[in-house]
Amino acid sequence: MTTAAVQEYAVTDAARGLYAVTTGPDGALWFTLAHSGQVGRLVPGEEPTLYQLDPAGQPTIIVTGPDGALWFTETRGHRIGRITTGGETAQFSVPTSDGGPYGIAPGPDGALWFTEMNADRVGRITTGGETTDFPLATAGAFPSAITAGADGGMWFTMNQANAIGRIGMDGAVTTYPLPTEAAAPVGITAGPDGAVWFVEIAAGQIGRVTPGGAIAEFPLPDRAGRPHAITAGDDGRLWFTEWGGNRVGSITTDGKIEVHDLPTPGSEPHGITRGPDGALWAALENGVLARITPAITAA
Protein backbone atom coordinates (compact mmCIF):
# COMPACT_ATOMS: atom_id res chain seq x y z
CA MET A 1 0.00 0.00 0.00
CA THR A 2 1.00 3.67 -0.06
CA THR A 3 0.80 6.47 2.43
CA ALA A 4 0.25 10.14 1.76
CA ALA A 5 1.92 13.10 3.45
CA VAL A 6 -0.52 15.90 4.34
CA GLN A 7 0.37 19.54 5.01
CA GLU A 8 -2.26 22.03 6.15
CA TYR A 9 -2.48 25.72 5.21
CA ALA A 10 -5.04 27.75 7.16
CA VAL A 11 -6.68 30.31 4.85
CA THR A 12 -9.75 31.38 6.85
CA ASP A 13 -11.97 30.45 9.79
CA ALA A 14 -14.48 27.62 9.77
CA ALA A 15 -17.50 29.96 9.72
CA ARG A 16 -16.86 31.13 6.14
CA GLY A 17 -17.49 27.74 4.56
CA LEU A 18 -14.40 26.86 2.54
CA TYR A 19 -15.88 24.72 -0.22
CA ALA A 20 -14.12 24.28 -3.59
CA VAL A 21 -10.56 24.72 -4.87
CA THR A 22 -8.93 24.83 -8.29
CA THR A 23 -5.58 25.70 -9.83
CA GLY A 24 -5.61 29.06 -11.59
CA PRO A 25 -3.78 30.05 -14.77
CA ASP A 26 -1.44 32.12 -12.58
CA GLY A 27 -0.16 29.05 -10.72
CA ALA A 28 -2.04 29.96 -7.54
CA LEU A 29 -4.83 28.09 -5.80
CA TRP A 30 -8.27 29.70 -6.02
CA PHE A 31 -11.07 28.75 -3.66
CA THR A 32 -14.64 29.62 -2.69
CA LEU A 33 -16.02 30.60 0.70
CA ALA A 34 -19.69 29.69 0.43
CA HIS A 35 -20.97 31.16 3.70
CA SER A 36 -19.30 34.58 3.44
CA GLY A 37 -19.68 35.12 -0.31
CA GLN A 38 -15.97 35.35 -1.11
CA VAL A 39 -13.43 33.98 -3.56
CA GLY A 40 -9.85 33.56 -2.37
CA ARG A 41 -6.38 33.12 -3.83
CA LEU A 42 -3.42 31.40 -2.19
CA VAL A 43 0.21 31.05 -3.14
CA PRO A 44 1.51 28.51 -0.60
CA GLY A 45 3.81 30.20 1.87
CA GLU A 46 2.12 33.58 1.41
CA GLU A 47 -0.95 35.16 2.98
CA PRO A 48 -4.24 34.45 1.19
CA THR A 49 -6.09 37.21 -0.66
CA LEU A 50 -9.89 37.35 -0.35
CA TYR A 51 -12.28 39.05 -2.77
CA GLN A 52 -15.71 39.99 -1.46
CA LEU A 53 -18.78 39.25 -3.58
CA ASP A 54 -22.46 39.24 -2.61
CA PRO A 55 -22.36 37.92 0.98
CA ALA A 56 -25.52 35.91 0.34
CA GLY A 57 -24.56 34.65 -3.14
CA GLN A 58 -22.95 31.37 -2.00
CA PRO A 59 -20.03 30.90 -4.42
CA THR A 60 -19.67 27.18 -4.87
CA ILE A 61 -17.67 25.47 -7.64
CA ILE A 62 -14.75 27.34 -9.27
CA VAL A 63 -12.75 26.46 -12.40
CA THR A 64 -10.31 28.05 -14.83
CA GLY A 65 -12.04 29.22 -18.00
CA PRO A 66 -10.75 29.19 -21.57
CA ASP A 67 -10.19 32.96 -21.37
CA GLY A 68 -7.60 32.79 -18.57
CA ALA A 69 -10.05 33.94 -15.87
CA LEU A 70 -11.66 31.99 -13.03
CA TRP A 71 -15.35 31.16 -13.36
CA PHE A 72 -17.62 30.11 -10.51
CA THR A 73 -21.23 29.43 -9.62
CA GLU A 74 -23.23 31.46 -7.09
CA THR A 75 -25.85 28.96 -6.02
CA ARG A 76 -28.07 31.23 -3.92
CA GLY A 77 -27.43 34.30 -6.05
CA HIS A 78 -28.46 32.36 -9.19
CA ARG A 79 -25.49 33.74 -11.08
CA ILE A 80 -22.32 32.70 -12.83
CA GLY A 81 -19.31 34.73 -11.70
CA ARG A 82 -16.01 35.57 -13.34
CA ILE A 83 -12.86 36.87 -11.66
CA THR A 84 -9.60 37.74 -13.34
CA THR A 85 -6.27 36.86 -11.77
CA GLY A 86 -6.03 40.55 -10.88
CA GLY A 87 -9.29 40.43 -8.92
CA GLU A 88 -11.74 42.10 -11.33
CA THR A 89 -15.18 40.50 -11.05
CA ALA A 90 -18.32 40.22 -13.13
CA GLN A 91 -21.59 38.36 -12.57
CA PHE A 92 -24.11 36.96 -15.05
CA SER A 93 -27.63 35.79 -14.18
CA VAL A 94 -28.56 32.25 -15.22
CA PRO A 95 -31.51 31.85 -17.63
CA THR A 96 -33.87 30.55 -14.92
CA SER A 97 -34.37 33.13 -12.16
CA ASP A 98 -34.13 30.60 -9.31
CA GLY A 99 -32.00 28.01 -11.12
CA GLY A 100 -29.49 27.35 -8.33
CA PRO A 101 -26.32 26.85 -10.40
CA TYR A 102 -23.83 24.45 -8.83
CA GLY A 103 -21.36 22.65 -11.10
CA ILE A 104 -19.36 24.41 -13.82
CA ALA A 105 -16.69 23.24 -16.24
CA PRO A 106 -15.09 24.41 -19.52
CA GLY A 107 -16.39 22.63 -22.58
CA PRO A 108 -14.74 21.62 -25.86
CA ASP A 109 -16.59 24.46 -27.64
CA GLY A 110 -14.78 27.33 -25.87
CA ALA A 111 -17.71 28.03 -23.55
CA LEU A 112 -18.43 26.97 -19.96
CA TRP A 113 -21.21 24.58 -19.07
CA PHE A 114 -23.05 24.56 -15.74
CA THR A 115 -25.85 22.78 -13.92
CA GLU A 116 -29.01 24.37 -12.49
CA MET A 117 -30.02 22.21 -9.54
CA ASN A 118 -33.38 23.83 -8.89
CA ALA A 119 -34.47 24.01 -12.53
CA ASP A 120 -33.51 20.57 -13.89
CA ARG A 121 -31.43 22.21 -16.59
CA VAL A 122 -27.88 22.30 -17.91
CA GLY A 123 -26.66 25.72 -19.03
CA ARG A 124 -23.97 27.15 -21.26
CA ILE A 125 -22.24 30.52 -20.93
CA THR A 126 -19.83 32.07 -23.40
CA THR A 127 -16.78 33.97 -22.17
CA GLY A 128 -18.67 37.12 -23.17
CA GLY A 129 -21.49 36.26 -20.73
CA GLU A 130 -24.20 35.03 -23.11
CA THR A 131 -26.22 32.22 -21.51
CA THR A 132 -28.52 29.50 -22.79
CA ASP A 133 -29.86 26.40 -21.09
CA PHE A 134 -31.30 23.00 -21.93
CA PRO A 135 -34.05 21.20 -20.00
CA LEU A 136 -33.66 17.66 -18.70
CA ALA A 137 -36.42 15.13 -19.22
CA THR A 138 -36.42 14.13 -15.54
CA ALA A 139 -38.15 16.34 -12.97
CA GLY A 140 -36.41 16.72 -9.60
CA ALA A 141 -33.13 15.34 -10.97
CA PHE A 142 -31.00 17.87 -9.04
CA PRO A 143 -28.14 18.04 -11.59
CA SER A 144 -24.94 18.68 -9.65
CA ALA A 145 -21.29 18.46 -10.76
CA ILE A 146 -20.28 18.55 -14.44
CA THR A 147 -17.14 17.77 -16.45
CA ALA A 148 -15.99 17.53 -20.05
CA GLY A 149 -15.60 13.95 -21.26
CA ALA A 150 -13.04 12.61 -23.70
CA ASP A 151 -15.87 11.98 -26.19
CA GLY A 152 -16.66 15.66 -26.76
CA GLY A 153 -19.71 15.77 -24.49
CA MET A 154 -20.37 17.20 -21.03
CA TRP A 155 -21.09 14.64 -18.32
CA PHE A 156 -22.95 15.48 -15.12
CA THR A 157 -24.35 13.85 -12.00
CA MET A 158 -28.11 13.73 -11.42
CA ASN A 159 -28.11 13.55 -7.64
CA GLN A 160 -31.79 12.86 -6.99
CA ALA A 161 -32.48 10.97 -10.23
CA ASN A 162 -29.73 8.49 -9.30
CA ALA A 163 -28.19 8.74 -12.74
CA ILE A 164 -25.35 10.16 -14.81
CA GLY A 165 -26.25 12.46 -17.69
CA ARG A 166 -24.48 13.43 -20.88
CA ILE A 167 -25.23 16.49 -22.98
CA GLY A 168 -23.79 17.01 -26.44
CA MET A 169 -22.83 20.33 -27.96
CA ASP A 170 -26.19 20.24 -29.76
CA GLY A 171 -28.07 20.05 -26.46
CA ALA A 172 -29.10 16.40 -26.80
CA VAL A 173 -29.25 14.71 -23.37
CA THR A 174 -28.70 11.02 -22.60
CA THR A 175 -29.35 9.55 -19.15
CA TYR A 176 -27.61 6.51 -17.62
CA PRO A 177 -29.30 5.12 -14.45
CA LEU A 178 -27.00 3.85 -11.71
CA PRO A 179 -27.12 0.19 -10.61
CA THR A 180 -27.24 1.11 -6.90
CA GLU A 181 -30.51 2.64 -5.71
CA ALA A 182 -30.39 6.01 -3.92
CA ALA A 183 -26.62 6.36 -4.48
CA ALA A 184 -26.90 10.18 -4.84
CA PRO A 185 -23.93 10.94 -7.14
CA VAL A 186 -22.21 14.32 -6.65
CA GLY A 187 -18.62 14.92 -7.85
CA ILE A 188 -17.51 13.93 -11.35
CA THR A 189 -14.32 14.17 -13.43
CA ALA A 190 -12.72 12.84 -16.60
CA GLY A 191 -10.30 9.98 -16.01
CA PRO A 192 -7.00 9.17 -17.72
CA ASP A 193 -8.60 6.04 -19.24
CA GLY A 194 -11.14 7.86 -21.42
CA ALA A 195 -13.97 7.14 -18.97
CA VAL A 196 -15.72 9.51 -16.58
CA TRP A 197 -15.43 8.90 -12.83
CA PHE A 198 -17.84 10.02 -10.12
CA VAL A 199 -18.63 9.61 -6.43
CA GLU A 200 -21.80 8.29 -4.82
CA ILE A 201 -22.18 10.21 -1.57
CA ALA A 202 -25.06 8.16 -0.15
CA ALA A 203 -23.80 4.72 -1.21
CA GLY A 204 -20.13 5.17 -0.27
CA GLN A 205 -18.90 4.15 -3.70
CA ILE A 206 -16.79 5.40 -6.60
CA GLY A 207 -18.34 5.01 -10.03
CA ARG A 208 -17.03 4.82 -13.58
CA VAL A 209 -18.95 5.30 -16.81
CA THR A 210 -17.59 4.67 -20.29
CA PRO A 211 -18.46 6.84 -23.31
CA GLY A 212 -20.88 4.10 -24.30
CA GLY A 213 -22.66 4.24 -20.93
CA ALA A 214 -21.33 1.10 -19.23
CA ILE A 215 -21.22 1.70 -15.47
CA ALA A 216 -19.05 0.07 -12.80
CA GLU A 217 -19.16 0.79 -9.06
CA PHE A 218 -16.42 0.30 -6.45
CA PRO A 219 -17.37 0.25 -2.74
CA LEU A 220 -15.21 2.24 -0.32
CA PRO A 221 -13.75 0.55 2.77
CA ASP A 222 -16.02 2.83 4.82
CA ARG A 223 -19.41 2.94 3.11
CA ALA A 224 -20.43 5.77 5.47
CA GLY A 225 -17.50 7.98 4.35
CA ARG A 226 -19.74 10.18 2.13
CA PRO A 227 -17.41 10.80 -0.83
CA HIS A 228 -17.99 14.30 -2.19
CA ALA A 229 -15.54 15.43 -4.91
CA ILE A 230 -13.14 13.69 -7.30
CA THR A 231 -10.29 14.73 -9.59
CA ALA A 232 -7.55 13.13 -11.67
CA GLY A 233 -4.03 13.14 -10.24
CA ASP A 234 -0.67 13.24 -11.98
CA ASP A 235 -0.05 9.65 -10.87
CA GLY A 236 -2.74 8.06 -13.07
CA ARG A 237 -5.13 7.66 -10.15
CA LEU A 238 -8.39 9.41 -9.33
CA TRP A 239 -8.40 11.24 -5.99
CA PHE A 240 -11.49 11.93 -3.92
CA THR A 241 -12.61 13.43 -0.61
CA GLU A 242 -14.60 11.64 2.06
CA TRP A 243 -16.60 14.40 3.70
CA GLY A 244 -18.07 12.15 6.39
CA GLY A 245 -14.93 10.08 6.97
CA ASN A 246 -12.38 12.91 7.34
CA ARG A 247 -10.25 11.31 4.66
CA VAL A 248 -8.94 11.61 1.13
CA GLY A 249 -8.58 8.56 -1.02
CA SER A 250 -7.42 7.34 -4.40
CA ILE A 251 -8.61 4.76 -6.88
CA THR A 252 -6.69 3.25 -9.77
CA THR A 253 -8.37 2.79 -13.14
CA ASP A 254 -8.67 -0.92 -12.35
CA GLY A 255 -10.50 -0.21 -9.11
CA LYS A 256 -7.88 -0.45 -6.35
CA ILE A 257 -8.76 1.95 -3.52
CA GLU A 258 -6.56 3.44 -0.80
CA VAL A 259 -7.65 5.96 1.83
CA HIS A 260 -5.72 8.37 4.03
CA ASP A 261 -6.89 10.01 7.25
CA LEU A 262 -6.57 13.79 7.54
CA PRO A 263 -4.57 14.99 10.55
CA THR A 264 -7.24 17.30 12.02
CA PRO A 265 -10.42 15.59 13.27
CA GLY A 266 -13.72 16.84 11.88
CA SER A 267 -12.15 18.87 9.08
CA GLU A 268 -14.93 17.99 6.56
CA PRO A 269 -13.13 17.83 3.20
CA HIS A 270 -15.11 19.05 0.19
CA GLY A 271 -13.42 20.04 -3.10
CA ILE A 272 -10.18 18.58 -4.44
CA THR A 273 -7.90 19.55 -7.32
CA ARG A 274 -4.56 18.75 -8.86
CA GLY A 275 -2.29 21.58 -7.78
CA PRO A 276 0.31 23.51 -9.77
CA ASP A 277 3.01 21.58 -7.90
CA GLY A 278 1.68 18.14 -8.88
CA ALA A 279 0.29 17.45 -5.40
CA LEU A 280 -3.42 17.13 -4.61
CA TRP A 281 -5.09 19.99 -2.75
CA ALA A 282 -8.33 19.62 -0.81
CA ALA A 283 -10.61 22.31 0.61
CA LEU A 284 -11.57 21.55 4.20
CA GLU A 285 -14.61 23.20 5.75
CA ASN A 286 -12.60 24.03 8.87
CA GLY A 287 -10.83 26.74 6.83
CA VAL A 288 -7.76 24.79 5.74
CA LEU A 289 -6.34 23.89 2.35
CA ALA A 290 -4.66 20.48 2.66
CA ARG A 291 -1.76 19.49 0.40
CA ILE A 292 -1.62 15.74 -0.21
CA THR A 293 1.60 14.23 -1.56
CA PRO A 294 0.91 10.68 -2.76
CA ALA A 295 2.89 7.56 -3.51
CA ILE A 296 5.29 7.16 -0.61
CA THR A 297 5.93 3.42 -0.53
CA ALA A 298 5.12 1.75 2.78
CA ALA A 299 6.30 -1.62 3.94
TrEMBL record:
A matching Pfam family: Vgb_lyase
Keyword line: Antibiotic resistance, Lyase, Magnesium, Metal-binding
InterPro entries xrefs: Vgb, Vgb_bact, WD40/YVTN_repeat-like_dom_sf
Highest taxon of the lineage: Bacteria
Enzyme class at the top of the EC tree: lyase
GO CC aspect terms: outer membrane-bounded periplasmic space
An MF annotation (GO) of this entry: magnesium ion binding
Gene3D superfamilies assigned to the protein according to its UniProt record, in alphabetical order: YVTN repeat-like/Quinoprotein amine dehydrogenase
Binding site for substrate: 228
List of residues binding Mg(2+): 268, 285
BP-aspect Gene Ontology terms: antibiotic catabolic process; response to antibiotic
Subunit structure: Monomer.
PANTHER family: VIRGINIAMYCIN B LYASE (PTHR40274:SF3)
Protein family per UniProt: Belongs to the Vgb family.
Record's protein name: Virginiamycin B lyase
Gene encoding the protein: vgb
